[in-house]
Amino acid sequence: MPSLTSRVSTPGEATPEERPPGRLEWLRRHRRWAFALVVVALLAEMAFVMITTAVEQSPTIDEPVYLGTAVVYLDQHSLRYNPEHPPLGKLLVATGVAFAGVHLDLAFTGDQSQLGRHVLYESGHDPGRLLLLARLPVIVLTLLFGLVVFLFARDLAGPAGGSVALALYAFSPDVIANGSLATLDVPVAGFVLTSVWLLWRARRRPVFHLPLAGLAFGAALATKMSALAAVPVVLLLVVLSVRHARRTGAFDSPRILGPLVAAAGVALITIAVVWASYLAVDPRLRWEPPPDLPAIHGLRALADWLPFPKQYRDGMHLQFAFEDQTWGGFLLGRRYFGPLWYYLPAALLVKTPLGALALGLAGAAVTVMVPKLRPAAPYVLLPAAVLLAAAMTGSRDLGVRYAVFMPMFLAVAAAGVLAIRRKWAYIAATALVVFTAVSSLRTFPYYLPYSNEAFGGPAETHLRLHDSNVDWGQDLGRLADRLRQDYPGERIWLVYKGSGVPSAYGITAADPLSVPPASVRGLLVVSDSAIVKADDRLRALIATSTPIDDVGHAITIYRRP
Known about the structure:
The protein is mainly alpha-helical. The chain has helices spanning about 25-30, 30-55, 65-75, 90-95, 110-120, 125-170, 175-180, 185-200, 205-220, 230-250, 255-280, 310-325, 345-350, 355-370, 375-380, 380-390, 405-415, 425-445, 475-485, 530, 535-545, and strands spanning about 330, 335, 490-495, 520-525, 545-550, 555-560.
């Protein structure tokens, strides 16, 4: 019998049990599917902008080298090209290039830069199609790393935190820009992130996750040697995970021996992956060191004792030689020579969306301050801090791509804000994500020259940064289209910084530095990075010219009197 205070349904009216659920109740029932839909939508958006960017962009400076080396891996199983980088990233590129059926002329004897140009422009294949095939595997891997970001952040702050982290990752201009290229920066950063996430999960299931972490970190070391800086951090996290697993009963091992054995096991798996990457190219590991291989001394000589193939160790010799060179830099409008220790933090400040920066730093602070998140701090914050510190000691101030791991780890850290479980935290996080998304979408499809609103946006990045931050040779095809559409029949004088071949895109141009200045009439087209590095002669030509157009915020077109 119903109570006096209960409402009795009238005939024909649905009972509360039969009444259709309200909107909030429906969302609660279908919460998992709602978050899955968010993940799919974000990754689909990211895939669209990356593929569009990859289709429209010409080769950047490094890509032809990696593409040509990938062809040699497939066709000749030789390790002789590009030894300064391990093979795995180029094997990844090879999975796409394999569909083009490219074969290298056996008579070719050029260096690796000539190799890339030969494969792209002299092999009889469409360079645009070949480049897209090389880029697609990196795009797929970048999307998979997005799932890692979501799962890592979900482990820390639930599905809402995972969605926020994925949104920041999916709209990161730096991740999009470098993830749509056939280069090594995003793969190595993503493999490190994956290994750290698996180590976090190893706190509960160490027997399952520790070997996977070793595989992921081995993939990082087999992609780029810069991951070596993370070795102490990874081994420390192995020990922390095993100790936690012992305390919770998830892992039964001796108190001291267990963590050390686990660390040794992960190290052995990591080493095995590096060896496997070389063996996959050439099972006989044939190798003839370069005749001019530089010697190394002091602490650097420890590299010769690493348990990696001779090719890897010789590649480290080459990397040290690069570090010993004096490189030019450009930061906040000032050109300089030699490294600035604060270059990367300053460049990241310019090129990170303000919403992502605010949310990431707030999440990092919450991770340290909130007790339930504090155990995650060594996993989320320490690897990024150590890798950034190592990158800051480098001599090549050429772009934030050397620190592309930062937006990845900051995205995961940002999820910590939602762990506060307060309405204002959810509102603030949503607003900052929307701000990030709008900032990112406004730069489409010119992601390489992105800078945030505090520094004038993409159109003004060239005033503060150079090289792969702005102009990495990616807009040669767009330049050809612009000249053909808007300046037909004009005399073109070109100063281009890149690895593309202008004539392959229909650009007929002359070098303005090879003739007297008075002979340079018509259009003067200059890559923005070349403007930064201009000598007195080019500066004089620019000073007496009128800027009339720009291409992709990376190439400026001037009118000569």
